[in-house]
Write a structure and sequence with these properties.
2 copies of one chain form a homodimer. The first copy, chain A, has 192 residues and is of the alpha/beta class. Chain A contains 6 helices and 7 strands, in the order E-H-E-H-E-H-E-H-E-E-H-E-H. The mean pLDDT of chain A is 93.
């Protein structure tokens, strides 16, 4: 049975453990073993030493997994959660199968403009978007920085977008389940 | 001569090319070859195909590099630039030497609270920090999500913090040069 590292800001939900269990059950339904990141409940220690222990165990889980499914829903800003982005890159470097999804369908450039956009007085060309500090806002019709969808694309992976209700932004599993369906189809066609 | 991939939001500066050249010159001063990410000026095409071409070339540059030096200064939110975080993870997965720096010394939890903090009415323990949606704010005294400094630590890398003036947040090279000094010392002690 192939295993999936379940990357995402889901670990910050008030009921993170239940959220992880729900994802693991869905993984089972589609024939996968879900690996949910370690949270700090299970560890002694505090501060930096605890943080580094969690990081070490999560890296080991990613090493062990065959697949990463990253929840790339924007988190406290226009981009995905920082830890999730690092983990997606790590999985890419380790040659894992990459999959990701986002529960916000609005393109990255629109969301960045909404939160940090300026008057475009700094723009060097009529079509260039800039933020309030005059720094370029990339505008490729993608859903995050180009390295993210680019990396998934380069790896021949799966990326699903879906528009959730605001209140279900971090809990809606529609897109996650779609990823699992695609993964199952891929595995079935490889096995055939 | 060891080569360094220069990851960071520097590519979004209005004078990105000059900013890259300044970093490359500093690299040379310390005996390294600096590799600055490709920008879209050199590419034909538009939209997704252009984005994916840039992503492919940046991934190839990271493959080629011996070392990554990531500018992890907070960018449009409490965390570092999304592309930079992905690239740091990719370099970790590829077994490169990892180094990073930030031009903002304030801890991650304080900055996250400032931008997204709530009343902590959702907190499950007296010491837990939560954001305005009730999601946990991690509080380990680090400078970003624990996977970032954790990964650099796991890899035996270098991480430098520095407090720049606000107006020089993305251009101040003090911490970057400190990283280069540390890297040179490491290389010299390995060569001895």
């Amino acid at each position: 049975m192939k295993s999936i590292y379940l990357a995402g800001p889901d670990v910050f939900l008030p009921d993170a453990r239940q959220a992880g269990d729900a994802k693991k059950r869905l993984c089972q339904t589609y024939g996968f073993e879900g690996l949910f990141p370690i949270d700090n409940d299970v560890h002694p220690g505090a501060g930096e030493s605890l943080a580094f222990a969690i990081s070490r165990e999560n890296e080991a889980l990613i090493q062990r997994a065959d697949i990463i499914v990253a929840n790339l829903t924007p988190f406290r800003g226009p981009s995905a959660d920082a830890g999730t982005l690092y983990e997606l890159g790590l999985a890419r470097g380790l040659g894992k199968f990459l999959a990701g999804y986002t529960n916000v369908a609005t393109p990255f450039s629109n969301r960045t403009r909404q939160m940090f956009g300026g008057s475009d007085e700094h723009a060097r060309t009529p079509s260039e978007l800039t933020d309030r500090d005059g720094l370029t806002i990339e505008d490729f019709g993608l859903h995050d920085n180009l390295m993210i969808e680019g990396g998934i694309h380069q790896a021949g992976g799966i990326f699903i977008t879906h528009q959730s209700h605001d209140s279900e932004r971090y809990t809606d599993l529609t897109a996650f389940e779609q990823v699992l369906k695609h993964l199952k189809n891929r595995m079935d066609s490889v096995a055939r």
